């Protein structure tokens, strides 16, 4: 039997938001650069849910470096950085962002392998967002300060977009076209199918029914 980690999610009393975040995390379960989510549970004496995840026996990167920094070669250190960068690249390729990436939620498992964990703040870049806005968002998140827009550029760009939508002020503007295309495609979207959960084969527990609001399945 493998050891697991139980993490209580504060203020997770809203099951709709909580389960959507779990669904986001499970999209990364087949990638070996991330801590795997095995399931969820809820103590009978608490309003908060708990996430059951793979256990990283060496703890966080911060704790690991405190103990072993002097023992690590530069090859070891670069391997940790490379795995983190790969994981981050993979997250962004799936239209997700990790809003709280730091050494406390990069975890070290057996064989001194690093994993990205703690996706409680992960969010999807909305598929219904105009590409002009997505491109601007990515520039704002750039690790290179010179690539980020200035406050003046942001103001001018956003004001231009706002003006083009003011009662059809400029229907030939690219922003107007993108929004119109999104609104048309949204009319044809089918309702999402309910989530299906698969019990982890190594899990041993007593199950009980969670009565989640039907609004979660929308």
Automatic annotation (TrEMBL):
GO biological process, one term: cell surface receptor protein tyrosine kinase signaling pathway
Pfam families recorded: PK_Tyr_Ser-Thr (PF07714)
Phylogenetic lineage: Eukaryota, Fungi, Fungi incertae sedis, Mucoromycota, Glomeromycotina
Organism, scientific name: Acaulospora morrowiae
Transmembrane domains' residue ranges: none
Gene Ontology MF, one: ATP binding
Protein name: 4349_t:CDS:1
PANTHER family: TYROSINE-PROTEIN KINASE RECEPTOR, TYROSINE-PROTEIN KINASE TRANSMEMBRANE RECEPTOR ROR
Matches recorded under InterPro entries: Kinase-like_dom_sf, Prot_kinase_dom, RTK, Ser-Thr/Tyr_kinase_cat_dom
One cellular component (GO) term of this entry: plasma membrane
Residues of the Protein kinase domain: 1-218
Domain of life: Eukaryota
């Amino acid at each position: 039997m493998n050891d697991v980690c139980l993490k209580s999610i504060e203020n997770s009393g809203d099951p709709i938001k909580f389960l959507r975040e779990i669904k986001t995390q499970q999209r990364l379960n087949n990638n070996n650069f991330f801590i795997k989510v095995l399931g969820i549970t809820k103590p009978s004496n608490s309003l908060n849910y708990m996430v059951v995840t793979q256990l990283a026996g060496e703890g966080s990167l911060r704790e690991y470096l405190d103990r072993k920094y002097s023992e690590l070669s530069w090859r070891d250190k670069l391997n940790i950085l490379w795995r983190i960068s790969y994981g981050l690249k993979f997250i962004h390729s799936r239209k997700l962002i990790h809003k709280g990436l730091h050494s406390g939620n990069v975890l070290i498992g057996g064989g001194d392998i690093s994993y990205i964990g703690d996706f409680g703040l992960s969010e999807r870049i909305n598929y219904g967002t105009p590409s002009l806005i997505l491109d601007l968002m990515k520039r704002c998140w750039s690790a290179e300060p010179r690539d980020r827009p200035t406050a003046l550029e942001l103001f001018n760009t956003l004001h231009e977009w706002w003006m083009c939508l003011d009662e059809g002020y400029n229907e030939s503007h690219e922003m107007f076209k993108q929004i119109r295309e999104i609104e048309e495609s949204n009319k044809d979207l089918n309702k999402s199918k309910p989530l299906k959960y698969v019990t982890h084969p190594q899990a041993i527990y007593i199950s009980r029914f969670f009565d989640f609001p039907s609004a979660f399945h929308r």
